Amino acid sequence: MEEIHETSSSTRLCDEEKLPPRKIPWIRRHPYRTLGAVAGTIALLGITLGVGLSVGLTNSGDAPESSPTIVSAKRSAPAVASASPASVCKPGVLSVLGGVNVYANSTPLWQPLPGTPWQIVLSSPVNAWKPMVPALSIYDIDMYGNNALNIQQMHLQGIKVICYFSAGSWEVWRPDAGLFPPQDLGRDLSGWPGERWVNTDSKNVRDIMAERIRLAAEKGCDAVDPDNMDGFETNTGFPLNANTALDYLSFLSLTAAKYNMAIGLKNAGSIAANATCMVEFAIVESYIAHAECAIYQNFITAGKPVFQIEYPLGAPGFVSTQALKQSCKINRNIGFSEVIKSKELGGWVEYCDGTVFNTPTYT
């Protein structure tokens, strides 16, 4: 999700033309979600969370049979968080804080290749009982909106499934909204009614996110797309910074690897250089509109894809040739996997070669 806030001073900007950040309305991803929002929250008040993961994520009794091999007794959290340089990232192997290498099920994690085409559909569940259009190998879908049978049908069509959830915000419409303690809820997200930043340093929040990742694994997701990782770049109401963001990403990465799932970095360009070896891919919104230059090139160098989303005027269906050219401007984004989307991230998608598709969804 793209939230309007000031760009961090550590984020490099292009010297050429800069387009103003685009305000994206709250309806963008989930127009269907508000109907059950209040009821879902009330119904789940008082539910206790049964999953507790320590920062080190040592194997526990309730871990799946295929738990990861962690090449270290315990990972550390250095004063200045850092990760291995992109040039020494091992394909399919996660390197988290402290230099810990993680193998899921003693085998490398799924590692998509740079330039692999993809589609992202978040506003409605996809209808995978029909042939998926476009016929691609990677789809990003909402974890809560799609059930295990839907994901199974996608697998039968040769599709790797990335499952979206928000890792940095509380959303009133989610079924586990009642599990967040009040003290872990921060400021509202600008332009997103019903969402508040969360304290990503809180054990309560991390337990909830660990359970979300477990649910993604239970549904059969191949990877997770944790949104709102860039809260440290704005005023969340909590003392978060780049170091805490990297520590949180390290926690999420270890948790995903426990279930043999890959994970991506969503936006948060100011930590991209240090996060390259912690994840298997990056997803960036409005890369060109925000003129974020070459800050994600480490991923391409490391053999990891950057999935790029642009929201030009006229989408869906009326994107001018000039707007398409601007959104697809090849300027230090060679090798990126671009999609042109409308703000609600529905089934409509356009690619830089001008082809247009409408992925079947349940509306």
From TrEMBL:
Boundaries of every Glycoside-hydrolase family GH114 TIM-barrel domain copy: 118-347
Q: Which reaction does it catalyse?
A: Hydrolysis of terminal, non-reducing alpha-D-galactose residues in alpha-D-galactosides, including galactose oligosaccharides, galactomannans and galactolipids
Q: Which InterPro entries match?
A: Aldolase_TIM (IPR013785), GH (IPR017853), GH114_TIM-barrel (IPR004352)
- Catalytic activity, EC: 3.2.1.22
Q: Does the keyword S-adenosyl-L-methionine apply?
A: no
Gene Ontology molecular function: alpha-galactosidase activity
Stored SUPFAM superfamilies: (Trans)glycosidases (SSF51445)
- Where does the sequence pass through the membrane? 32-57
- Does the record carry RNA-binding as a key word? no
Q: What is the protein name stated in its UniProt record? A: alpha-galactosidase
Naturally occurring in which organism (per UniProt): Aureobasidium namibiae CBS 147.97
